Amino acid sequence: MYELRSPTVKRRRIAKELTHLREQAGLTRSAAAKALDMSPGNLGRIENREITARPVVVRAALSLYGVTGEEAEALIELARGAAERGWWQKIKVLPDWFGFYVGLEEEATSIATYESEVVPGLFQTADYARELFRLTTTEDAEIEQKVEARLQRQRILTRESPVRVHAVVNEAVLLRPVGTSSQFKAQLEHLIQISELPNVELQVLPFSSGGHPAMTGPFVLLKFPDAIDGPIVYLDNFTQGQVIEETEQVESYEDAHIRLQNLSKSPSESLARIRDALGSF
């Protein structure tokens, strides 16, 4: 079994396993909570990964559900790891809802994303990110911490066993300058460099394609090394993020991304379009 790194994914795994084992044991949440001497609400928060289950609680739950031996010890060790803090949890300016996403992103083996207005965060230069944050943040110190966090996220592109990214960006991303002309040119040049990484595929969705299946907004689809963790779709806005896990809904986004790829320029044509845009600034 793949060794999990991210405490966020460990917490998600524990929550899914405990829920599955309780249901397999034929216990309602209320009955299990009573036997574990806790409120159904607290058990619900554990199963919904709102809080991290302490190893002692996991051990008691597994005993109740009839799970012993190596399987139990593996899950208890996972619970210990879930209580650790990832680097993103130490950056106070990142809201919890986005920190949860970063914890998932850290473990992902593949990312499929569509962006309509901005360069994907994993592909942004420091200057481009800084100018974006200035639109919504006034404190310079807070802006710099957010920029630092964004750059740290990008290490998953070049680490050992890097994440595979397939990004589709609306043509508007190449035409909407952010920052000074020189800063935006540097961002476009960086996009060209990023697209040359063997684990990155970048496509431009041209205006000439007309309507498309993601006109309601951008999205990110993450997949993980173990099938048990299941893929997720992440959506966000100014004030909150949403994780979608229901299989049918995730498959709809997978289908949408495939359709976007088919409507977009090929990677080589997209690279030529970025170079063309670069020449206009």
UniProtKB/TrEMBL annotation:
All residue ranges annotated as the HTH cro/C1-type domain in the record: 18-72
SUPFAM superfamilies associated with the record: lambda repressor-like DNA-binding domains
InterPro entries linked: Cro/C1-type_HTH (IPR001387), DUF5753 (IPR043917), Lambda_DNA-bd_dom_sf (IPR010982)
Any Pfam family hit: HTH_31
PROSITE patterns linked: HTH_CROC1
Stated name of the protein: Helix-turn-helix transcriptional regulator
Species, as recorded: Glycomyces endophyticus
Taxonomic placement: Bacteria, Bacillati, Actinomycetota, Actinomycetes, Glycomycetales
